Amino acid sequence: MTGRDPSREAAPHGVSAALSATGGEPFGPNEVRLRWQGWAWVAALAALLALGIPRVWERVERVATGQDYRIPYALSKDYWLYGRRLRSLSDPGTVVLLGDSVVWGEYVGPDGSLSHFLNQETAATGERFVNGGVNGLFPLAMEGLVDRQGGVLSHHRVLLQCNPLWMTSPKADLSTRKEEPFNHSRLVPQFAPWIPCYRADAHERISAWMEQHVEFLSWVGHLQSVYFDGRSIPSWTLVEETGTPPRHPNLVRNPLARITLEVSAEVVPDPLRGVGSPRHKPWKSEAAGGTQFEWVPLEASLQWGAFRRVIQQLRGRGADLFVVIGPFNEAILAEENRPAFHRIRDGMASWMESQGVPHCTPDPLPSPLYADASHPLTEGYALLAKRLLSIPAFHLWVQPPGPAGF
Prior knowledge:
Layout: H1 13-21, H2 36-60, E1 62-63, H3 79-87, E2 95-99, H4 101-104, H5 114-121, E3 129-133, H6 139-149, E4 157-162, H7 170-173, H8 202-213, H9 215-227, H10 233-237, E5 262-263, H11 302-316, E6 320-325, H12 338-355, E7 359-360, H13 378-390, H14 392-397
Parallel strand pairs: 1-5, 2-3, 2-4, 4-6, 6-7
Helix pairs in contact: 5-13, 6-11, 8-9
């Protein structure tokens, strides 16, 4: 009996073509191979999306700004939101106050900050003086923020605060050899100048550098800060609630439902800030004259070097710059520690004088108007605004365009 060999039977034309394409394997992989032209198109599309998504997002997401707006404390590390805030300032007569928590107002509400009282004292219409402070923004971090987000400041006047507090010790200056955690580590120079107390590995440094220079990555950080409690989506999904047994409630939640396209404003009144808060009180005056700081000389200070580079960055971009040195609560210092502080303060002023940088050093506020070594209380900010405007150089600098002035 003669049987038929199945392997010799003719296959249908479509199947035969498929077998030929897969090398004779009926279930071979369906490969899609791109030539270099195809990969070029893919790269171009990815770049277009990376550039376009943040710009589109800026148009559709609502940010609750208003009079006396400042970046909410919880979003202090949302550097993309900070840049967006600066980009929204279209009036060239706007004065941006740039500095750390002294400018932001650590112990006061939005209506108790320096920018608020400058607007009030000059009877400014709208928002002429803008609070551009960020909590913990020491000069080495400010350098990174200005480099990445400060390009639009070339169209504005910038009132730059110089806080001697960052030179009160090698730890504050970040020049100590001992490893120290610190705020805004993703803003500081990752490779040069070298920060001895910063011990991040190569992956962390490269990641931070990429986030500083690729806006899409900065925008991703914005999403994490606003909608996912500062975590990546996988980390947010695995958040564990306390209890026995442990629970992971976010595992069954849709992360897209968290994205509301609305950035909430600062909570007012803030239980930790403002006249009614328990933190809003004078520093303990019984400790007056008892503090010894280990001042870092200007010539050895990393923070002072960074501050000078910030000035050069802003001036190089054409910003109209004025520097305020202080405020600083001198009553907190031990008598023998004050000459070192005066050398630091006077050295700052001397350098600015030599570089032609407009600046002033207001008289110290009455000690009870400070909450600590450098942060004024609400009445302190009100008095500081008056004193600044009484300084002829500052008063002339802040004159609005036009013949009338204020």
